[in-house]
Amino acid sequence: MIVILGVTLIVFLLFQLAPNGAVGLARTDLGSRASPIQITQFIHQNGFNLPWWDQYWHLIDNYAHLNFGYSYHFNQPVRSLIGEFLPRSLVLVGMSTLLALLVAVPLGIFQTVRRNKVSDYVLTSLAFIFYAMPPFVFGLLLILYLAIDNHFFAPIVPSTEGVVQMMTDFHAMFLPVLTLATGTIAAFSRYMRSSMMDSLAQDFVRTARAKGASRSRVLFRHALRNALIPIITLLGLSLPAIVSGAVITETVFNFPGMGYLTYRAADQYDIYVVVGTTIVATVATVVGSLVADLLYAVADPRIRYVHN
Amino acid sequence: MSTTNEELLARSTEIIEASTTGNGASSGALGEGGLQGPSGGEATSTGSIGSLILRVFLENKLAIVGVALVILMLLFSFVGPLIYHTNQIGVNLADTTLPPSSSHVLGTDPSGFDVLGRLMYAGQSSLEVGLAAAAMATLIGVVWGAVAGFFGGIIDAVMMRVVDVLLSIPALFLLIVLAVIFTPGKVGLIFIIGGLAWLTPARLVRGETLTLRTREYVQAVRVMGGKNRRMVLRHIIPNAIGTIVVNATFQVADAILVLAALSFLGLGIQYPQADWGSMLSDGSQYVLTGYWWLIVPAGVCIVVVVVAFNFIGDALRDSLEVRLQQR
Fold first, then answer.
1. Vertex B288 angle, CA B284 and B289, to 5°
2. Is A269 near chain B, with CB under 8 Å?
3. B270: left (phi > 0), else alpha (psi -120 to 50), else beta?
4. Which alpha helices (DSSP H) does B39-152 contain, by range?
5. What DSSP character marks residue A133?
6. Is residue B31 scored above 50 in pLDDT?
7. How far from chain centre, in Å, is Cα B119?
8. Measuring CA to CA, how many Å separate A278 from each of B199, B229, B244?
């Protein structure tokens, strides 16, 4: 809650700091040939002549009622725009995070088992490279070699598709999901490896081995469960980065989601859309982190949120 | 509580000496001259962190590779244009998007600029902004974190809540808002990127400060009547310098990536200037026609620089951890 208030305050202050202030905003929205009368009218309509605390109150009030303003570029309310684009982004982020976990966790375990062997070194170096490769580089390379040179996948995502259609369209969805997942896989598998190593060095692992548990049982039952706990924390912490990555990925693949909407709006200086998507993305991220925190309690029996 | 002032002073001097000898014995590289001057507690001077870094690089192969790559890219971007002369000013519409050939090693871009020359020219912007933004982020983060951690209490709580709020916003959205409102040039981009990247160093330095302020030698300075500013600037920050330097290295890599991302969205470095991100942005218009020379070289440059800085950071962090374990 504090975070969301903080975000609105920051965004609001940025509005106040905009060069040329309200007149500048009016000009970008109405066009450079707007008459002074039109500009005055615009300022009155949007309440820019009120003192700043009044304006901030109106902003909070509006956003609390999910009223994000009106997009001059797309010629529809920002709320309906977001309603249209947000579910698709959730699909992209959700699927790629799932894929990342499904790949990174086994990869980390594999590297722990084969630690300091050739395959471990190869995977570590690959992780280094992919960790450094931003989605717009990786995505473009994938398009170039997998969609253009060889027609394995579609280079761009059709913008007409609904959410359900999208989730089943493997041909178009594979590349964007893979692009967004790769950076996460690289980061998570490295972390998973060190986390597994840590828990393998713990006393309870030695105890389990000593009482006669098999190697694989120790690995999966004892060590893995403990190693997964920090991964959940990491997941919560990485969400802002994943959402940022989604903006880029969506732009690369013309994926009709929130990030692409933000990009298009930013290109047209459509400030209400940009601010609206920023706030919605932040709220989604905060909610995601909260869910990760709750999962944390599920995974680790030592942690209980006490409520009296 | 029968100790007199003289006794306290004597005791605190002892503690200072003990703490510096401790440092000197355990880490060699850090402790040089620790006992020589009257300013005993200031164990870590800039000279000794320099020698620490030097030692790390001589011991660690990855670090050598990292530094070599960084130097290579610096030479490529800043000295390269002096050797490989290309026209990066006049648009040449007769020679656009030519594939690589003997006259244009990496082909030409949509404006007819030689891609290899363009890479050098773009590298200047990327590296300049990356290094400057990282320096700025580190500076703000160190001051913010040290102040918050040192004073504690309500100041700490308020300052760190600000960091928490900013950290939970997906950074790219905030950057887009800023870039749209201010339409920054190169210097503006440094301020915007640096002005949002200081959160991690602030957190790290605050954590370090919280432990350092309870150390005997910092307490001793307080007993001796040292001012807050002196304690923070001459005792706490120098002792946290390892963490700070490691993070600064990663900051450079991050800043280059953020700039490239902004430029890729068309909000960073503006035409006719270029950076690697904006080159990719141009190239992405031609990806469907398969003009690989507009994409692969710039992508390789970004990845190489970022990997290089990550190598250096990792090596520094490893050595720092070893040093801490030896203590």
1. 105
2. yes
3. beta
4. 46-59, 61-74, 80-83, 115-151
5. S
6. no
7. 22
8. 19, 38, 30
Q: Are B86 and B42 in contact (CB under 8 A)?
A: no
The string of pLDDT tens digits covering residues B242-282 is 778 888 888 888 888 888 888 888 787 877 788 888 888 88
Paired tokens of A44: 């009155």
End-to-end CA distance of chain A: 21
For chain B, positions 114-143, list CB contacts with chain A under 8 A.
none
DSSP string of A32-80, one letter each residue: TT--HHHHHHHHHHTTTTS-HHHHHHHHHHHHHTT---EETTTTEEHHH
ipTM over 0.85: no
DSSP A157-207: --TT--HHHHHH-HHHHHHHHHHHHHHHHHHHHHHHHHHHHHHHTSHHHHH
d(CA B217, CA B207): 18
* Chain B residues in contact with A17 (beta carbon < 8 A): 181
Query: Closest approach of chain A CAs to the CA of B259, in angstroms?
Result: 11
* A282 touches B169 (CB < 8 A): yes
- What's the rounded Cα separation, in Å, for the pair A200 and B241? 32
pTM for this predicted structure? 0.78
Write out chain A residues lying below 8 Å of B310, CB-based: 128, 131-132
Report the pLDDT averaged over residues A206-231: 78
Q: Which amino acid is at B235?
A: H
Give A87-299's CATH code, choosing from 1.20.120.530, 1.10.3720.10, 2.30.130.10, 3.20.20.70. 1.10.3720.10
Cα B38 vs. chain centroid, distance in angstroms?
Answer: 33
B181 to chain A, any CB pair closer than 8 A? The answer is: yes
Of A261, A216, A253, A254, nearest to A109 (Cα)?
A216
The per-residue pLDDT for range A53-105, each reduced to its tens digit, is 777 777 777 777 777 777 767 777 777 778 777 888 888 888 888 888 888 88
Could you read off the pLDDT of A98-146 as tens digits, one per residue?
888 888 888 888 888 777 777 778 888 888 888 878 888 887 887 777 7
Distance, in Å, from the CA atom of A157 to the CA atom of A176, rounded to the nearest integer, reads 8
Nearest 5 degrees, angle CA B212-CA B217-CA B222? 95
d(CA A105, CA B132): 37
